[in-house]
Every structure is written in structure tokens, then in C-alpha cells.
Specification:
The complex is a heterodimer of chains A (514) and B (65). Chain A has helices at 3-33, 35-42, 47-80, 82-102, 106-109, 112-140, 148-177, 179-186, 188-206, 212-219, 227-232, 235-270, 275-289, 291-303, 306-330, 406-427, 430-437, 443-459, 462-470, 482-498, and strands spanning 341-344, 348-353, 360-370, 375-384, 393-394, 398-403. Chain A is an alpha+beta fold. Classes of the chains: A alpha+beta (514), B mainly alpha (65).
């Protein structure tokens, strides 16, 4: 058998699948990254109404519908084939993303704006629900059995790659245009750019052949007539769906979202690290860690998938709290001593009228620069009452926009790198793991649902649930971590007891491509 | 764990919605907890089924492809 054309052929398959999947992740993530700006532009200014609609559109829609997309497109993929189904998901994702960039502001079209955003966000979530299962299945069904982990791990780089691309384009656009122009209209550019990327990917995917295993199935007349029923009403298969969810993807999902999304959100919103610093830290962490998706995926072909994934979960359980404690400690400027301060900038005083009263909020902000190169904004506020006989209410000092010293910056990059390393351990082998759990005729349906429940629901809700826990009375800043730690621990226990560490059979290393 | 998690979520939802300020904040809190319950109750039910299968020994011998 000629290995070179086979390798070349598989890498063409990987390239075509990965590019589209990467773009779909990019489309999904730019919405999350720009949620605050979208909220201010496309939602009513009235805080009450926008809170409701914002909750629906941004919080619920994108993540909750992913499992439904998995069912809809998974079924389609098992009925008509992988190629056309995940071509459809790409068109839907690209189209909806582009249209989000075109929606006029709330001030132009009123409530139609947030309603359109909600609908398009739903379409994004549905499309993503169908994309990953198709791409992973498609690549896996071209790969030889003894290298399935290696070849599918290239698909696994695309989620983090999409995040990297989204952060990079947002930071670049914002730095070129300036913060004000970006908030006003520049935020649309990352959405509009998507259509160019999607167009290229559609062109490439149109030229791809159908999965050879599905083609064989179709030729033999063995395509499932009802993939949903065969997947979930058949006990033998349904129990594997449950095992895949509770023993693998549930833990994998929380590790994935904690190490990337929650980490960045924690740095920005809890530690109040400067916008650019928090994103550059994540960008560097991703850049250093991304090769390990392929390393762990390849290694899983030799030693099995189970213990690599479970080790990633266990290390998360053990190290998350110490890591985030370091984030808190190293950004705590409340105990800075005078001898560490190089310079305090001139204070800027602003007065804001308080709605419905004659009182005002007086805010004094000054830039503090430290000898080690770090800096932050010190903000002191007090309420000035119209009745001068009343003593002004002084609010606690707030420290924001913290720029880190070089040493702390790279320390944080190291800690983020470690968290993303855990991501590569749990995520690198999981595509091959899921593919190997289910038969060809219902693979797309069966693997998509546990994947998107584990990632879309358990993982996607990490920032929300962690923030919710941190808001309970008596909670500390690190209390939110109990959610991912608890879920990962549960998944580790279930996976350790019930998952099989099946090693690929190297004595039958035959290709499965035509 | 499945039944315990369902009971815990309902109790938290009732407590948090009850504590919320009247008006939009209460509606928003109710909506958020409604969504959480809508998503996680079926998943907790799935955990119950998983536990039932595990106790019956269904995972002692996994099916072949």
C-alpha cells in the first residue's frame, strides 16, 4: 500500500474539515467576546428590559440549543451523509454571523434589533451543534484505526484555534480603530469578516468526497432509517451515550471552559486586569499549548484514551484553587506600600447626576504606576447630597485596569498555559474516543448529543454558574470554582470506574479510506 | 446524586427568586433559574438512569462495535 498519497489524502480531509470547524468556532466566540458591546448597541438602554432580553439572547440561546442542533443535524448526517450536513451547518453559521454584523442598532429599528439578535444566536447555536460531530466523524472515518487519535486531534485544535482567532481579530481591530470607534461601529467588523472565511471554506468543502464508511454503508443499504430511535431508544446504545456524557464529556466540558473562558473572565472581572493584558495572556497560553492537542491525541493511540483524559480532569480538580488564588494574590494592590509607588498621576474628577434625585456621584480616578512596571487605576467615589447638611457617603476604593509587571504577566501566561495543557489532555483524545464508542450508522447522532451537552451545557455555563455561586451570601471570590471542580471530580470517578481503556489493535493497521 | 441534585436545584431556585427584589430583577432571576431547571432537570434524570444501569451491571461488559 502507498503510504504517501494516503497521508496526503487524509491531511486534505483534515484541512478541509478543520478550516470550516475553526471558522464556526470563531463565529460562535466573537459573539461571546463582544456580548457587552452588542448589548449596549442592539438592546434598549432601559436596564430592566435589556437585562431580560440580554439574558435570553446571550446566556441561554447560544449554549442551550447546541444539543438540539446535535440532534437535528446528527440525524441528518446519519441519513444523508456527513459531507452535505456539515456543509449546511457551515452555511448557516456563516450566514447568521454575517447578518449579526449588519443588524441596525436599537435606536434605529427598536425591539426588532434584539429579537433579530436572539434568532440569529439561536441559528448559531444550532449550527454549531451540528458541526463538530460531523467534522470529527468525517475525519475519523478516513483515518486508519491505529492513528485515529492523531488525525482527529487536528480537529480538536480548532475550538481553541477559533478562540485564538476571535481574540486576535478583536484585539487587532480595537487597537487599529481605537476603543470609541470600536464600540460605536468597529465591533461589526469581526462579524462581517466571517463571510469571507466561510466562503473559502464552503468552496473547499464542496470539493470533498463523502465519508468512505458512510458510502459503504449506503451501498450496502444499511443506513439507519431512524437514527434518533436507534441512538436513544436502543438501550445498548443509549447507555453508551450516558456513559460518554457523565464519564467523559461532562468533565471535559468544564475543564475546557474553565481553563480558557472562565480564566479570562476571572482575570478581567474579578482581578480587574487590563483588557489587553487579560487577552494577551490567554493568546500566549493558547499559542504555547495548542501543539499538545496533537501530542496527546497521538499518544492516546499508543496508551489508550481513558487515562489521559481522566488525568486532565484530576489535575484540574487539584490545581484550580491554588492557581486562581495566585491570580488573586498577585493582582491585589490594596496592600501596596508607598515605597513601591513610582508615580501617582493627576486625579481626574467626574460628577454624575444620580437618576431621580438631585444628588451626585463624585468619582476621583488616578493612575498609579509602580516601581516594578505595573500600574492600575485607583477610583474613589462618594455620594454628594443636594442637602449639604448630610454627610457624603464614601464608597470603598476600587482598583481597575491593572497592567501587570513583566514578571507577573509571564507567570500568569504560565498558569494559563498549564490550564490549557489540561484542556489538551481532556480534549485531544476525545474525538477518537467518542467515534469509537458508536457504530457507523448512528455515529453522528450518538456522539454529537453527549458532546454538546457536556460542552455546551456543563462547560458553556461555567462562567454563569461560577458567577452565580460567587454571588451567594458568604461566598468568596474562589467559590465559583466549586462548580467545575465538583463536575470534573464526578466525571473522573465515573470515568475511572466505568470507561474502558481500549487500545487500538496495531496488528490490523489498515486504512479505512477508499 | 441525581435526585439530590434535582431537589437542591429546586430549593436554590425558590430561595433565590424569593430573595430577589420585586419587579424586573425578580422576573430576571426567575427567568435565569427557570432556564437552569429546564436544562439540568433532564440531565439529572439522565444521571438517575445512568446510576440505575450501573447498579444493574450494564457497564460491566461494554458492547462491541
Amino acid at each position: 500500500m502507498n503510504q504517501e498519497p494516503q497521508q496526503s489524502s487524509i491531511f486534505k480531509v483534515i484541512g478541509a474539515s478543520s478550516l470550516g470547524t475553526l471558522i464556526e468556532w470563531y463565529d460562535f466566540y466573537i459573539f461571546g467576546s463582544l456580548a457587552t458591546i452588542i448589548g449596549s448597541q442592539l438592546f434598549p438602554a432601559d436596564a430592566g428590559a435589556s437585562a431580560l432580553i440580554n439574558t435570553l439572547a446571550i446566556f441561554a440561546a447560544g449554549f442551550i440549543v447546541r444539543p438540539f442542533g446535535a440532534l437535528v443535524f446528527g440525524r441528518l448526517g446519519d441519513l444523508i451523509g456527513r459531507k452535505y450536513t456539515f456543509l449546511l451547518t457551515l452555511v448557516l453559521m456563516g450566514g447568521s454571523t454575517f447578518l449579526i454584523g449588519l443588524i441596525p442598532s436599537y435606536s434605529s429599528i427598536g425591539y426588532a434589533a434584539p429579537i433579530l439578535v436572539l434568532i440569529l444566536r439561536l441559528v448559531q447555536g444550532l449550527a454549531l451543534g451540528g458541526e463538530y460531530g460531523g467534522a470529527a466523524t468525517y475525519v475519523a472515518e478516513h483515518a486508519p484505526a491505529n492513528k485515529r487519535g492523531y488525525f482527529t486531534s487536528w480537529i480538536q485544535t480548532t475550538a481553541t484555534g477559533g478562540l485564538f482567532l476571535s481574540l486576535g481579530i478583536i484585539v487587532l481591530t480595537k487597537n487599529i480603530l481605537g476603543a470609541e470607534a470600536f464600540a460605536d461601529w468597529g465591533w461589526r467588523i469581526p462579524f462581517l469578516l466571517s463571510i469571507l472565511l466561510v466562503g473559502v471554506s464552503i468552496y473547499i468543502r464542496m470539493k470533498m468526497h463523502e465519508s468512505p464508511m458512510f458510502t459503504k454503508l449506503k451501498t450496502e443499504g444499511k443506513v439507519s432509517k431512524n437514527p434518533l430511535k436507534d441512538s436513544f431508544a436502543n438501550k445498548a446504545n443509549f447507555k453508551m451515550v450516558l456513559l460518554a456524557l457523565f464519564g467523559a464529556t461532562m468533565g471535559q466540558g468544564v475543564i475546557w471552559y474553565t481553563g480558557q473562558f472562565y480564566a479570562q473572565s476571572f482575570l478581567e472581572n474579578t482581578c480587574h486586569v487590563d483588557f489587553n493584558d487579560s487577552r494577551y495572556i490567554l493568546l500566549w497560553g493558547i499559542a504555547f499549548a495548542t501543539p499538545f492537542f496533537v501530542i496527546f491525541g497521538s499518544w492516546s493511540d499508543k496508551v489508550g484514551r481513558k487515562w489521559i483524559m481522566l488525568t486532565g480532569m484530576l489535575l484540574g480538580v487539584i490545581f484550580y484553587r491554588p492557581i486562581y488564588q495566585v491570580f488573586l494574590d498577585d493582582t491585589d494592590v490594596s496592600k501596596i506600600e508607598q515605597k513601591d509607588i513610582q508615580e501617582v498621576g493627576n486625579p481626574v474628577i467626574t460628577r454624575t447626576a444620580l437618576t431621580g434625585t438631585a444628588d451626585s456621584l463624585i468619582t476621583t480616578s488616578s493612575t498609579v504606576i509602580l516601581l516594578n512596571g505595573a500600574s492600575f487605576q485607583k477610583i474613589q467615589s462618594h455620594t454628594q447630597y443636594a442637602d449639604v447638611s448630610k454627610t457624603p457617603t464614601v464608597l470603598p476604593e476600587v482598583y481597575k485596569d491593572k497592567k501587570l509587571s513583566t514578571g507577573v504577566f509571564w507567570k500568569f501566561v504560565g498558569l494559563i498555559f498549564f490550564q490549557i495543557l489540561l484542556v489538551t489532555m481532556v480534549y485531544g483524545p476525545i474525538a477518537a474516543f467518542l467515534v469509537e464508542l458508536f457504530p457507523t450508522k448512528i455515529r453522528y447522532t450518538s456522539m454529537s448529543l453527549p458532546y454538546h451537552v457536556g460542552n455546551g451545557v456543563f462547560g458553556g455555563l461555567v462562567p454563569f454558574i461560577a458567577t452565580l455561586i460567587a454571588s451567594f451570601s458568604g461566598a468568596m471570590p474562589l467559590s465559583g470554582l466549586w462548580y467545575p471542580i465538583g463536575i470534573a471530580a464526578l466525571s473522573f470517578i465515573i470515568g475511572a470506574i466505568y470507561l474502558s481503556n481500549k487500545k487500538p489493535d496495531h496488528s490490523e493497521a489498515e486504512t479505512e479510506s477508499i | 446524586m441525581g435526585p439530590a441534585s434535582i431537589i437542591f436545584m429546586f430549593m436554590q431556585a425558590i430561595e433565590k427568586v424569593g430573595l430577589a427584589e420585586e419587579g424586573v430583577h425578580k422576573t430576571n432571576t426567575a427567568l435565569q433559574w427557570g432556564i437552569i431547571l429546564f436544562i439540568f432537570i433532564p440531565i439529572s434524570a439522565g444521571l438517575v438512569i445512568f446510576g440505575y444501569y450501573a447498579l444493574k451491571g450494564e457497564y460491566d461488559k461494554l458492547p462491541e462495535d
